[in-house]
């Protein structure tokens, strides 16, 4: 086994076999307005 990894599979990978997927944000960060409303509600 050598020190350098074998990159043959990576360089010969066929991207056209991949499926297209839609990325969805599962836990989006709150907006500035939401943060301000929560600050005012707690004080």
From TrEMBL:
Keyword vocabulary terms for this entry: Actin-binding, Cytoplasm, Cytoskeleton
Ranges of Basic and acidic residues composition bias in the record: 1-25, 33-43
GO MF annotation terms: actin monomer binding
The protein, known as: Thymosin beta
Region of interest: Disordered: 1-43
Family the entry assigns: Belongs to the thymosin beta family.
Record keyword Cytoplasm present: yes
Gene3D superfamilies named in the record: Single helix bin (1.20.5.520)
The protein's role, per its UniProt record: Plays an important role in the organization of the cytoskeleton. Binds to and sequesters actin monomers (G actin) and therefore inhibits actin polymerization.
InterPro entries registered for this protein in UniProt: Beta-thymosin (IPR001152), Beta-thymosin_sf (IPR038386)
Subcellular location(s) per record: Cytoplasm, Cytoskeleton
Entry GO terms, CC: cytoplasm; cytoskeleton
GO terms for biological process, alphabetical: actin filament organization; regulation of cell migration
PROSITE patterns for the chain: THYMOSIN_B4 (PS00500)
One Pfam family here: Thymosin
Species of origin: Ictalurus punctatus
